[in-house]
Design a protein that fits this description.
This protein is mainly beta. It has three helices and 19 strands. Helices cover about 5% and strands about 50% of the residues. It is globular, with a radius of gyration of 22 Å. The chain starts with 13 loop residues before the first strand and ends with a strand.
Length: about 325
């Protein structure tokens, strides 16, 4: 008996493209030659419906059915934390950062600085091909996270949402250009700098943060159809080796609710360095063992001082 599928499709054959939007809701048509993403740990939900029950009273048991009110899509992936390889040339995944509530200031040959915004949010369109099927995520916005953990690969993580678009049959992207993606540097004592909190330099083993964007999926009469960033409540945590209290007293800072500066730079060469700078309030302190040494796990609330300055990312 012949196989049901003469040519089964393979899960491993996947590629993701991402391109910034010119106008929200208009597909900018990403191409493999310019917009390929070095995406890792990709997950997707192409069909994410919002349903409403019909709630018809029947003279027998069973469902009366439901209706799809709206359908949305989600796409998540990780990108290794690194620049483009050339200082002042934006990172290849800058469109994803902008779709999560940041705006960039480019200084040619020097740096790209991403600051949070409260208005004029960007968006980006992603294409994902899985062995012959094209999924479009038009005008996504979403949530961004950072993770810099010792003995690991530092990553920026993205969860992007969009209005649903029906998948279509399509050949794999060609050509896919993979230049502009320097090999990442793992987190260790050579590649990763100290963290500075309240002007005190500290060694650390774990540093994670999230923008905490409130994502609203709007489908209103008018029409108003979009994925919108309505607010944000960033979160963060870091585990540091504990010096003497005379040097660094996180309990006193937490008790006082002091807003302090935090900064870390990862990367050793120009074009591969990334600084994560924050204004944070320490909200909790827990003593923790770090490979046999005393450490503090600090729960942090990134909190703006002058507005939109609680998280700043600099690629240089």
């Amino acid at each position: 008996m012949p196989n049901v599928l003469a040519s089964p499709r393979f899960w491993r054959n996947q590629a993701v493209l991402l391109k910034p939007d010119v106008a929200y809701g208009t597909d900018p048509v990403p191409t493999g030659a310019a917009n390929w993403m070095e995406a890792r740990n990709v997950s997707y939900t192409p069909f994410d419906p919002e349903k409403v029950d019909r709630n018809i009273q029947l003279d027998y048991m069973g469902r009366s059915g439901s209706k799809n009110v709206n359908v949305w899509s989600k796409l998540s992936f990780d990108i290794a934390m690194a620049g483009s390889g050339a200082a002042g040339t934006p990172p290849k995944y800058g469109a994803a950062i902008a779709a999560c509530g940041f705006a960039v200031t480019n200084t040619p040959a020097t740096s790209d600085v991403y600051n949070l915004v409260t208005t004029a949010f960007g968006s980006a369109t992603a294409y994902m091909n899985i062995d012959g099927t094209l999924y479009k995520f038009v005008s996504t916005r979403g949530e961004m996270k950072g993770k810099i953990n010792a003995k690991g690969i530092p990553v920026h993580s993205f969860e992007l949402q969009s209005v649903y678009a029906a998948p279509v049959a399509s050949a794999m992207f060609a050509p896919v250009t993979k230049t502009g993606w320097p090999t990442e540097e793992p987190v260790n004592s050579v590649n990763t700098g100290k963290v500075t909190i309240n002007a005190v330099d500290l060694a650390f083993s774990q540093f994670e943060w999230a923008t905490g964007n409130q994502i609203n999926r709007l489908s209103l009469p008018g029409p108003q159809l979009e994925v919108a960033i309505a607010d944000r409540g960033p979160t963060a945590s870091i585990t540091v080796l504990a010096p003497g209290l005379a040097t660094f007293d996180p309990y006193a800072l937490a008790l006082a609710g002091t807003n302090v500066a935090l900064s870390n730079t990862h990367g050793t060469a120009g074009g591969k360095k990334v600084t994560s700078a924050m204004k944070v309030v320490i909200t909790n302190v827990a003593e923790e063992q770090v490979e046999g040494m005393l450490g503090y796990k600090l729960t942090l609330e990134p909190t703006p001082v002058n507005g939109n300055d609680e998280i700043i990312l600099t690629f240089f």
